[in-house]
Design a protein that fits this description.
6 helices, 45% helix
Length: 152
């Protein structure tokens, strides 16, 4: 009997929802929660991303940028360029400054997808620095996103 209880306990831990990813059960980490709030819109439908249900991720086949989408139907849809433009502008505004040099993001700033996330920098050499120390700069991006969302 003790053996059965031990096995059941181990199984319940192994299939715990906290171990699942956003694509499986909608469990969201801090970084994803910030990205969802900054993205705000579904790139396919243009609807605001729901706050009360699990979200799926969709990856742009060309840029490899990961986006959150509002529903199962959008998994097979194509992004609307107008929605992507709105999301891009919002991402630039939320980041606000180059992650490396702290210079303001301007319309002339460059962007690139690194690790599935769009990053804005003041000049192309900064991309290499971000690629080499992704976690450091993603943590800085998290802080900038949090500051942006507090002001909203």
């Amino acid at each position: 009997m003790k053996y059965i209880i031990a096995v059941l306990l181990l199984l319940s831990v192994a299939i715990s929802p906290s171990a699942r990813t956003i694509g499986q059960e909608g469990v969201v980490g801090k970084r994803d929660a910030l990205r969802i709030a900054v993205q705000k819109l579904c790139p396919i439908s243009g609807r605001e991303l729901p706050k009360d249900k699990p979200l799926k991720q969709w990856t742009d086949p060309e840029s490899k940028e990961r986006f959150f989408i509002c529903c199962e139907n959008c998994l097979t849809g194509k992004p609307d360029p107008a929605h992507l433009k709105t999301i891009l502008e919002r991402q630039a505004k939320a980041q606000g400054e180059c992650l490396v040099m702290d210079n303001a993001i301007t319309p002339e700033s460059k962007s690139q997808v690194i690790g599935g996330v769009r990053i804005f920098v003041c000049c192309p050499p900064c991309f290499k620095k971000v690629e080499k120390s992704q976690e450091k700069y993603f943590a800085k991006l998290d802080d900038l996103h949090a500051q942006f969302l507090k002001k909203e």
